[in-house]
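Field log, afternoon session.

UNIT: design team B
ACTIVITY: writing a sequence onto a fixed backbone
BACKBONE:
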């Protein structure tokens, strides 16, 4: 069974279990799939994979938003854009990302167990 067939089977299983599409195919995972990365849906991926991916997505998303906010406020003349400010913010992005990722991975593991979803290797 190809990756796409397994992913579709997993998505059908989660939809039948009552999951909403955003729960079994978050935007970050959909983006990775569009880029051709063969990452299992979060409820079927292992704890470590989910912890790393969710931490990375959190840090990247918050950093991009924060840099855009800094640039806009500088453009409006409210503050001067300073990379040192962005660097200081990284000191908060990363610790919160390191907390957010593992907690979300715990949720995915708990939810998969609650709905009695099989492991990725057991599909097909």
């Amino acid at each position: 069974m190809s990756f796409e067939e397994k992913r579709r089977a997993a998505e059908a299983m989660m939809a039948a279990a009552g999951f909403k599409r955003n729960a079994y195919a978050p935007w970050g995972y959909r983006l990775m799939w569009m880029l051709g990365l063969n990452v299992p849906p979060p409820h079927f991926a292992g704890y470590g994979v989910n912890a790393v991916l969710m931490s990375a997505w959190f840090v990247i998303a918050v950093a991009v938003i924060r840099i855009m906010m800094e640039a806009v406020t500088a453009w409006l003349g409210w503050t001067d854009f300073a990379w040192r400010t962005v660097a200081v913010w990284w000191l908060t992005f990363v610790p919160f990302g390191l907390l957010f990722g593992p907690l979300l991975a715990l949720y995915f593991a708990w939810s998969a167990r609650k709905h009695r979803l099989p492991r990725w290797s057991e599909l097909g």
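LOG NOTE: The chain has a mean pLDDT of 88.
NEXT ACTIVITY: expression trials, pending approval
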